[in-house]
Amino acid sequence: MRVSGSDAVRIGEAISRRKLSPRQLTRATFCDNQGEPIDDGLAVAFRASASYTGEDVVELQGHGSPVVLSMLLERCLELGARMARPGEFSERAYLNGKLDLVQAEAVADLIASGSKSMARAALRSLKGEFSRRITKLDEEIKAIRVQIEASIDFADEAEAFLDAEGVEVRLRALEAKIEAVISEATCGAALSKGLRLVLAGAPNVGKSSLLNRLVGLERAIVSAEPGTTRDILNEQTLIAGQQVELVDTAGLRSTLSEVEAEGVKRARAAIAEADVRIDLWDASRPETRGVWPPAEAGQIVIEVMNKQDLVATKDTSCLGISAKEGAGLGELSREIERQVIVAHGEPTFLARTRHLEALKHCREALAMALREHQSSNALELVAEALREAHTALAEIVGLTTTEDLLSEIFRNFCLGK
Amino acid sequence: MVGLTAEIIVIGAGHAGVEAACAAARMGADTLLITQSIETIGQMSCNPAIGGIGKSHLVREVDALGGIMAMAADAAGIQFRVLNASKGAAVRATRAQADRGLYRTAVRAAVERQANLRLVQQEVVNLIFEDGRVVAVETALGITYGAKTVVLTTGTFLGGIIHVGRASHAGGRAGERPATQLAARLRELGFQVGRLKTGTPPRLDGRSMELDRMTVQPSDAPLPVMSFLGTSDAHPTQKPCHITATNQHTHDIIRAAFGDSPLYGGRIEGVGPRYCPSIEDKVVRFAARASHQIFMEPEGLETHEYYPNGISTSLPFDVQLALVRSIRGCEAAHITRPGYAIEYDFLDPRGLTPWLETRRIKGLFLAGQINGTTGYEEAAAQGLLAGINAAGQVAGREPWAPSRRDAYIGVLVDDLVTQGVTEPYRMFTSRAEYRVLLREDNADARLTPKGRELGLVSDERWHVYNARQQRVSGLTGTLRKTRITPNSAPAKRIEAMSGSKITNDISAFDLLRRPEVGADQLCAGLQAMSAANDKPDALPQDWEQVKIEASYAGYIPRMEREIEQLKAREATPIPKAFNYHTISGLSAELAEKLSAHAPANLAEAARIDGMTPAALSILLVYLKRDVAA
Fold first, then answer.
1. Hey, what domains does chain A have and what are their CATH numbers?
2. Across the strands, what pairs with B127?
3. CA of residue A365 relative to chain centroid, distance
4. Which of A111, A379, A407 sits opposite B618 (nearest CB)?
5. pTM: predicted TM-score of the whole model, two decimal places
6. pLDDT in tens, chain A (417 residues)
7. How many Å apart are CA B350 and CA B598, to the nearest integer?
8. I need a surface site. Which of A321, B261, B316, B526 has the fewest CB within 10 A?
9. Cβ-defined contact of B609 to A401 (cutoff 8 Å)
């Protein structure tokens, strides 16, 4: 983990409880705010003049499990750091003159791909009910802002925009809701597991064998009979330190059995939802190539030819492996790693931390709105706090502009003398 | 036929034109103000009121920069109110009902008093250019007037068409000719022209109404004041407004007449404002409402005419009469002037620089409704800014425009030139991100020093300003130093008056930050202490000022962080010819939007809709490369 900026050394020293000298590796026990150890690791500081970003930098090297990493991250945030935006370290390095100016394009690409991967990670981390609840929260904040802004800007109108008790009751309800969302997000139950890597292909091209290889255990039933996998099989594994959900699917073919037809239908749905897809075909049966549905927007597809041991001449237009004999698997897993790291740099737990940070910021701003409402008659300060709460949530659900608010005001209220 | 030459020509003498001409002349430029009619200088074409929420903020800013609107409102105001009085100072706003005649007289007097400013009564029909610069204007009589810069303020006159029922005719205002030739000329020149619409209600004779059957709404006490130099004893006699309302019968009359409505018959193509709908619109859009409020606003002290604010309409005259007479207190009302809708041309303000010069033609500045805004205050603010920069350009100065963090004027022009308009643009406080900093009470502190530097601020105003600042900062210093200890005599008095408990040693300033502690209570509480007597010259309004600043003090650091980011972005210019399409990592859609808006700096780019933090970072990276290259 890397921390950059004028407070980096202070934060690094607070976590490692050691004095950090420039460019010296220091062994340390990283501790949380109670002094309880999080991880044993190494810490090193760099002065601005000799660092990657051109600012003071501290690097904390731990043992890399997502859980430990997220605790360490949490501690940095407590100490005043914020999450870097995608590609921000390179951006800073570039802006501080630490990177060659001709690298603009590379840095821009890094930012762009990083932000795409962040957006995808956000989608993954926010599936289903949880996402709906945050959207609902956003809508409720907007609704109350509409009333308050209207009552400020149209005070001379005969409309009753709000009554004092209503605002308080609604702010309290909002606070309770965001509290519930935060505690749920903290225990992680509502969040999905991580990156989805889906194996896709015609029956009997070796998807299940490959899954077993990748997971390293005999999870799927492997059989020479086509169509053995009739439902979706999921496995969790770590690739490049990231949690990846491996998904095996039923073979894609038009089929006679009703059970299998349902399996194919589910397979297509799983393939559509994949972040990374391995499109597998059988070298001995060229007709199994190209049965895959077209890639979804932003989906990464790795085409792999299996059973290369069965043919004499290799097709070099894509990666060749033999799941049965293990040939080419090293190359494949490096390719998967590369795709997972480079294009999907943002692990889910980071996305989740980002969301938690936004939600907590939102909660604090809501609490401030409530305090302002109770202590003063300055409605514009309540409005100010609510604007902040709304902006915090915008990190997750997108920005509501003044124009959006005004449109809502004009739609809801009859205004204009 | 050559008339004469001046340094600056201002075309149009409404609220924008007058401020533009006076500002330029105050800055020492030889200025010519050309209007179709000298008699209608400073005419209020719509409702007889100045100020209101968001708008009075603009008026105070114009005043802080030496403009004339606030002083004219003080001289003409016959009913003054403070809106949002129960809320915090940031959104408190002053509104003045003005006597039209007195207002016109005050504005005319200010124009005639102004040195370096000459008047011409002519209709301008053509602009003359040399090498992409405007060099002269030509009038309908064929006279040419030469100038180095020109400020165009056409109001609703540009291609104006007036609608009443099924009848329509070309007109700039009731009874006045439109600027048709000039409109055609501007279209020829390739400006992006759009149509907007606005409307007025019928005017009523007060003697034909029973005002005592309506709710009376008098001025506030103490009488509010608009200008930093104004005093309430300079206001004319006060005259109240009255409030009545439409009813179901009124709405039935309107519904029955939709066939004759130019709005609903498709004869009006211009877009009207959502916040100032005609009564036809209100009845359609809010069909469930049984009643709509009407403010009966007096037109002046020497006239019986009233302006029924809330029933703007372009229905046929007989329908107008019937609907008016269905209203409580108006059963026998006489209509002195029918209401009408007016459509007019505006030029897409995205073609302007932040200092209101057209990008297409150098030396040509636009202000007021021609830029798609509505309202006297919005017009005055733009007029002032255009005048300042027209004069500045002649004098070889750098252009100046306040930023969004400095002034509502900054919010206004920034919104216009970066976002454009889809309906007549009106100011709202919710448009200002830094609302708690941009208040009526501190408009002088925000702008008067800049105004002085620009040559806009008279010695008198400068003296008043400095005296006030000194008293307020002196008092603030004293209150910061003054400690109040629990159970002391002042503490007990303040506790008794405010109900606020003093349990720890606290500075008087921090005590003032508590919402429940009023400035007057603290002042009274401190009477006993000698420290407070160090500042015997502090006035009650100075105490109020310190109270306001104390209440917002906690918000300032956060705002300033935001402002720092804004400043950094504003300080990152984007070259005009920047090619967004060659930037890798920007979506085609965003590159398209950026090309269309051509933001002058990163701050403007950040406000384009659909902009993301990642896209901004990418832009920054490329800008850095291009600057270094």
1. 2-83 (3.30.1360.120), 113-190+352-399 (1.20.120.430), 194-344 (3.40.50.300)
2. B137
3. 24
4. A111
5. 0.81
6. 889 999 999 999 999 998 998 888 889 899 888 888 888 888 999 998 888 888 999 998 887 666 777 788 888 988 989 888 877 888 888 888 887 766 777 777 777 766 666 666 665 555 556 777 888 899 999 999 999 999 999 988 777 787 666 888 999 999 999 998 888 776 653 344 467 788 899 888 888 888 888 876 444 555 556 656 656 666 767 665 566 778 888 888 776 677 777 778 888 888 887 878 899 999 888 888 888 888 876 678 889 999 888 887 777 788 888 888 888 888 888 888 777 665 455 555 666 777 788 889 999 999 999 998 888 768 899 999 999 999 888 877 776 778 888 888 888 887 765
7. 9
8. B316
9. yes
DSSP states along B338-402: --EEEEEEEE-GGGB-TTSBBSSSBTEEE-SGGGTB-SHHHHHHHHHHHHHHHHHHHTTPPP---
DSSP 8-state secondary structure symbol assigned to residue B608: S
CB contact under 8 A, A87 and B617: yes
Choose from B621, B622, B623 for mutation: most chain A CBs within 10 A: B621
A164 touches chain B (CB under 8 A): no
3-state secondary structure B502-529: CCCCEEHHHHHCCCCCCHHHHHHHHCCC
Interchain proximity A414–B620, CB inside 8 Å: no
Name the maximum alpha-carbon separation found in chain A. 86
The CA distance from B315 to B255, in Å, is 11
φ/ψ region of B9 (left if φ > 0, alpha if ψ in -120 to 50, else beta) reads: beta
Residue A373 makes CB contacts below 8 A (sequence gap 6+) with A167, A168, A171, A382
The predicted complex's ipTM stands at: 0.89
Give the angle subtended at the CA of B438 by the CAs of A409 and B69, to the nearest 5°. Answer: 90
Cα-based distances in Å from B520 to B176, B498, B524, B527, B542: 52, 10, 6, 11, 11
Q: Is the dihedral of CA B254, B260, B263, B266 positive or negative?
A: positive
